[in-house]
Write a structure and sequence with these properties.
This protein has about 160 residues and is of the alpha+beta class. Helix content is about 30%, strand content about 30%. The protein is built from five helices and seven strands; from the N terminus they run βααβββαβαβαβ. Strand 2 and strand 3 form a beta hairpin. The protein is globular. The protein starts with a strand and ends with a strand.
Length: about 160
């Protein structure tokens, strides 16, 4: 396995949807249409296995910017067979580094799996600190709203 990281192309969307649907069925992430991926393609990073034919996508995540100082790491998914190889951490760090280059200094995440984020310096925050634009853009669509068990975490630079 030789993992590399890059911005996705529109031709990667079908593979991204396929990976995402597994986690949607588990109720761990929100569904996302192909059109939604296309509209937000520039926000994503993908991990791909260069040893597989056609550079198989191993995972992805996105950086959603809310303001000049705040962004969210979202839609982090790694295919089951690629887990426990540091890919999720690398994806998160690629997103954070892009945010830092843009001048972002606070990174938010909402997750059912906080361990990875805590290991890289995120700290749990109260959900009332989550920006309203996140709640009304995404959370309102979730099957768990308003009784969400996700944990909100923040990393500040």
């Amino acid at each position: 396995m030789q993992i590399d990281y890059k911005k996705p192309a529109l031709s990667d969307i079908d593979a991204m949807v396929e990976i995402l649907e597994v986690e949607v069925k588990k109720g761990l992430v929100l569904p996302r249409s192909k059109d939604s991926f296309a509209r937000e393609i520039r926000a994503f990073f993908i991990a791909f296995d260069k040893e597989e034919s056609k550079d198989r996508i191993a995972g992805f995540c996105a950086l959603q910017i809310y303001s000049q100082t705040l962004a969210e790491i979202r839609s982090l998914v790694v295919a089951e067979e690629y887990r426990n190889h540091g890919i999720a951490k690398d994806l998160v760090m690629h997103a954070i580094n892009e945010g830092l280059d843009l001048g972002i200094r606070e990174f938010l995440v909402l997750t059912y799996r906080p361990n990875l984020f805590e290991r890289i310096g995120f700290k749990e925050i109260a959900k009332d600190k989550v920006p309203n634009q996140k709640i009304w853009a995404d959370c309102i669509k979730c099957q768990h709203f308003p009784n969400c068990n996700e944990i909100a975490l923040l990393k500040t630079y």
